[in-house]
Write a structure and sequence with these properties.
- The protein has 178 residues and is an alpha+beta fold.
- The protein has a single domain, classed as Hotdog Thioesterase (Thiol Ester Dehydrase, Chain A), CATH 3.10.129.
- The chain is 33% helix and 29% strand.
- The chain contains five helices and six strands; from the N terminus they run αβααβββββαα.
- Strands 1, 2, 3, 4, 5 and 6 form a six-stranded antiparallel beta sheet that branches.
- The chain is globular.
């Protein structure tokens, strides 16, 4: 089940925090509860993706994205992800999550998130390709940023991210089927 109560808590905690600029890090703190575990008694990979919502949605509010998309009756949807899991997170372990905007292009916003354990080791990292969507389809993210602050320009896309974006552009879609 989706962690609605945990999300409500994050929204309440973050509703009065100051706005964020591009590249600034939104930090949130979470606990790996027993119902977040898999058969190996570590954070389930699917639940990890859901927990990233707990950082990303309040981050969207602080970044100004939520205000714009509600005003314009648009939405923000995840259009792809590149994820790495490196350290196990166990029951009752405290998690420090960081979320930031990396850059954007003419179609997508790239959001980076990481989870850190109590030993200050990066347990997981994900880059989301997010799309702002309206009645006519995908909206150029620059339109959203222009609503937040005029003349904002995307930071240069890091080389490592550019490699992933280019490989995604070469990936066949739809995938093969029998």
């Amino acid at each position: 089940m989706y962690p609605f109560i945990r999300m409500a808590k994050e929204l309440v905690i973050n509703r009065s925090k100051e706005s964020m600029s591009i590249g600034e890090i939104h930090e949130s703190h979470h606990i790996c509860w027993p119902w977040d575990l898999d058969f190996w008694f570590e954070l389930n990979n699917g639940r990890a993706l859901t927990l990233y919502d707990l950082g990303r949605i309040p981050f969207s509010g602080r970044s100004g994205f939520s205000k714009v998309i509600f005003k314009k009756k648009w939405s923000m949807t995840m259009a792809g992800a590149n994820v790495r899991y490196r350290k196990r997170l166990r029951a009752f372990e405290r998690i420090r999550m960081q979320t930031r905007t990396v850059c954007w292009d003419e179609r997508f916003l790239y959001i980076e998130q990481s989870m850190w354990n109590t030993k200050k080791e990066c347990a997981g990292h994900i880059v989301y390709r997010a799309a702002f969507v309206g009645a006519d389809g995908i909206i150029n993210p620059q339109r959203v940023f222009d609503e937040i602050e005029k003349n904002l320009v995307s930071p240069k896309m890091p080389d490592w991210l550019n490699v992933w974006v280019n490989s995604e552009n070469k990936r066949p879609w739809p995938p093969m089927q029998e």
